[in-house]
Amino acid sequence: MKITILGAGAFGKALDKILTDNHHETKFYDPLVLPEVSLEAATWGADAIVIAIPSNILPSFLQDYPDKLKQVPTVLTSKGLLNLDLFQDFTQFSVLSGPAFAEEIMQGKPATMTASNAFSMNIFQNQQLNIELCEDALGIVMCGALKNIYAIGAGYHSDSEDSFAVFIQNAHIETKNYLERHGANPATTELSCGLGDLILTCTSRTSRNFTCGVRLREGKSKDEILNELKTVEGLSALEHVDFDGYPLLTEINRLVNY
After folding, report:
1. Nearest partner of 26 among 10, 45, 40, 11, judged by Cα
2. What CATH number is given to the structural domain containing 207?
3. Residues 6+ apart with CB under 8 A from 86
4. 10 Å Cβ neighbour count for 201?
5. Which of 86, 101, 133 corresponds to the end of one domain?
6. pLDDT digit string (tens) for 179-215?
7. What average pLDDT does the chain have?
8. Burial of 247 (0-12, 13-18, 19+ CB in 10 A)
9. Which helix (H) or strand (E) holds 133?
10. Nearest-CA neighbor of 143 among 110, 172, 111?
11. Domain tally for the chain?
């Protein structure tokens, strides 16, 4: 199968490894990394498209996205969106998400992710990458966005083991409540895309979101943190989240925008 990956960053390249291992023919589109390759050339003859570009630039990227490409089977792997409004015109759309670091995938380490349909499961699943099937695409993307926000709070509370453990437990409960109130299935939080990714991101010292929380505890401002880390996915997601009735999200917003 011919598959185009939109985004040649670390995670895009990790997905390319999996697809290549599965004997698919891949191409990249990334104007920053491969400026000589146009979107038309990269997607010519594609049987499927995998989106692996940062979620904060997806709205502007999709403004001029060709309608004909919206008919091609498309798998969203970017994390940070709280709804699927951007993809309402896509006719064959699915989501893949879960606790998987690009570096570890490239090293051949096993991982488990969640896919929203059989197509996205089948093109990625192999001996290294186990795929769970869950049809709740909205819940999968919500989990992927919320866990980045909660990782900021986890970093902030990481100086106390008791506070840290309670925070992660409450973040899981709050995620369930958030999904249920916003039209998704709260049971999705029990899968790898939910609890698995929440634990990974909230405990990893290499996570930019976790590091953001640590820097906030140290007294750094949001601007200083962004100057250091460049990209913090949780900060972008925080701009679109619903705070009403969610004390942890409210606390993190206060810490970021004090």
Report:
1. 45
2. 1.10.1040.10
3. 58, 59, 62
4. 27
5. 133
6. 999 999 999 999 999 999 999 999 998 899 999 999 9
7. 96
8. exposed
9. strand 129-133
10. 172
11. 2
